[in-house]
Amino acid sequence: MHFERCTVTANEEYGPGHWVISLRSGQDLSGIQAGEFLNLQCDPEDSWSLLRPLSILGVDLAANTMLVYYKHLGRMSRALSSVQAGEALNVLFPLGGRFPVDMSHRRIALIGGGVGLAPLLFLAKQLEDSGMEIDAYFGGASKPDLVLRMLEPYNCNMILSTDDGSHGYRGNCVDCYFDSGRSHDAIYTCGPNPMMNALKARLDGSVPCWASLEEYMACGVGACLGCATHIDNADKRANETVCKKGPVFDLSKVVFHH
Amino acid sequence: MSPSLTTTLPRGTILKDPILLASGCCGYGEEYLPIVHPSTYGGVITKAVSVTPRLGNEAPRLRETPAGLLNCIGLQNPGVDVLLDEVLPRINQLDYSYIVNVVGHTVEEFAELVSRVQRHCDEQGQGGMIGFELDLSCPNVDSGTTFATDLDVLRAVTAACRAETEQLIISKMTPNVTDMLPYAEASRESGADSITISNTLNGISIDIRTRKSNLGRPSAGLSGAAILPAVLYHIWRVHKAMKDYPIVGCGGIWDADSAIQHILAGATAIQLGTGLFMNPKLPIEVQQGLERYLTEQDEPDLDSIRGTYEYC
To answer: Mapped to the 3 state alphabet, what secondary structure does B20-68 carry?
Structure first.
């Protein structure tokens, strides 16, 4: 784990309200894994606001940069989008744990929406030479939400859906997944809680499903317990920190409250 | 010669510098090890421990406010058995000083916690343990009041804990009172060696669409830079009247300047909490800033500046 002032090398809007920022580090980034996240200062002049937890979209080892996908959602993401290349931001990284991967699996599914695509795309990138077949069920409200330009570099089967039918399957990505009728050795998901809860409700437990959760966070390192989420283990209920014990959990054990 | 940051608290407690990490913001001190080792500054105050494990509150437990943070963690902790059997033996290997924060529902629970931790120290060795902090901002089930705002139960709980240990006891005050002075006096009279000023301010955050709380509870505790002036006021008020009673300042420290303000108002030691979340290297930045300030002011140590705030 490092706390470093990273230089912004690019900060580009890929679609309306959808941005990717590149952060150059002085650290060795080769060990960063899909599922891990970072805590990012969004305004270089602001020392009073919390760092924002954001999934790592990828790592460019040649440029020694970490890529982060974010969406205009509030004051801090708007501030982040006005940061220029050459400016520097405080970053605490890498945080949390990775997606578990069983290399004997032959076909996996990625199911996600919104900024939840970030860790899934990183996973797709890390597994592109694994020989696994990767089906990516990505959804959005409408075509612009899919940010098609961002999906271009990834070598997986993109099965896209939109709520309004403006692109691909009409409906959400969970319905799209089940309607596809394809079987997988494992599922990886990240997106809004209602989406993941809907997925959980329809899975029968025969296929492992790993979910990357999002929660309000402060420390990012398991110290403050602010991000605890309800995990239902067989023997007892627990409130586990999303930042340290997660963000990836067995979806069947996650109890969604909001 | 470089100025000294060495800080002395009662009962022979000597800290490398006045910097402590606030309970609830640093776990047991281990989480920030990769960034700044707690042995490089004063020490940490551990997450509040209760007699039995507590699950804490439902999410959301956090809500950011302008320059502040509301939290309703709900004192989630594994209970004193786990603290004694697993946590203390583990952190005693890590060579840093720590204060154990305890929280109970009754006077008896507070006393039991202090007694059990003290007995553990007596039998297993002191390790890095240097004292207790009493978290008094929770309701007393017997009286229906909060320990920190009821002078009678405040005296009772402090005296009961005092009877169980010869080690340092710091009582953590609430800022949710008009005048903290009577509570500080009651703490001293009943055996607390020092007081922490303070815990979080009461606050709420409302979702205007649903007209319900933005948090998992109706109200929560406010911390962060936003509360600095309010905390400084309480420190100044108590220190002015009780100059020989050591105060541990806690609230709103986000840089060296705000830490220095705590000491100028009258604090002997300081706690860093929410500021860590923006800057995990804050302990080192505050340490360096304190040294720089003393050098610039040509002062030999912190005693020379403590409580020197002049308001007219």
So the answer is: EECCCCCCCCCCCCCCCCHHHCCEEECCCECCCCECCCCCCCEEEECCE
